[in-house]
Amino acid sequence: MGAPLLEAANLQLRFGAVRALDGVDVEIFPGEVVAIVGESGSGKSTLLRVLAGAMEPDAGRVLYRDAAGEAHDVQALSEAGRRRLMRSDWGFVHQNARDGLRMGISAGGNIGERLMAAGDRNYAHIRAEAADWMGRVEMNPERIDEPPKNFSGGMQQRLQIARCLVTNPRLVFMDEPTGGLDVSVQARLLDLIRGLVAQLGLAVFFVTHDIGAARLLAHRIVVMRHGRIVEEGLADRVLDDPRHAYTQLLVSSVLAA
Ligand SMILES: Nc1ncnc2c1ncn2[C@@H]1O[C@H](COP(=O)(O)OP(=O)(O)OP(=O)(O)O)[C@@H](O)[C@H]1O
């Protein structure tokens, strides 16, 4: 399998009395989808933000290995260095599309802006790529000049995904990308994400409290509780044969729902 793309060791982070991360070790390999599951408040989003260098842990470290095999200490990166990684190697899909989109510019502009930030200056090419990506996320490319507010919540989320993937990242962080959407919209979006992830061979950290989504997308599942990883393993093993009592509860409460 080679070296991990990203690995974190002994992450600690407290908010006052709350231990949001309490000795977390986690890693991801190229092309792997890792779901981070757990109930609300278990530390999933905090972990994702720390892994992406958007939040500093009190202790521990995160290493990212670039395409040339060089390891970078994510917390030691300058803000410019982190932004560079975010533009080239990484992508972040927020739960709320508004956090990942620029609402004042067109759909095509939202996708094209990422290409421009990555150095593309050929406007005809940028527009063609933006239209192509709208098609790939099942949006009508004829609506390329419309602003995000004209689109439904599910479509805005597709647009955010197109904006994120257009630069061909190696590692994508997704924080509840289907949260807050209707169940039928969620199912289609998950299918779309699954197809794109497989097609592009992406590595994805996928935060969710939806066990069904984890089963559909993930190769491996990490179960968090009170800032700790209480269980991890291949998705089928964790879901079909959960060993920790908390995982059993999580899985059974879904089955009973
Ligand atoms: N900026 C902050 N200031 C204070 N406490 C915080 C902050 N961010 C997170 N916390 C606390 O840290 C704990 C973990 O929060 P986190 O958002 O990571 O959980 P989560 O598993 O992602 O929950 P959810 O599924 O509800 O998003 C919670 O107790 C939360 O209240």
TrEMBL record:
Entries under InterPro entries matching the protein: AAA+_ATPase (IPR003593), ABC_transporter-like_ATP-bd (IPR003439), ABC_transporter-like_CS (IPR017871), P-loop_NTPase (IPR027417), PhnK (IPR012700)
Keyword ATP-binding (UniProt): yes
Keyword Kinase: no
A single MF term (Gene Ontology): lyase activity
Protein name per its UniProtKB record: Phosphonate C-P lyase system protein PhnK
Domain ABC transporter: 6-251
Designated gene of the protein: phnK
Regions crossing the membrane: none
Alphabetically ordered keywords of this record: ATP-binding, Lyase, Nucleotide-binding
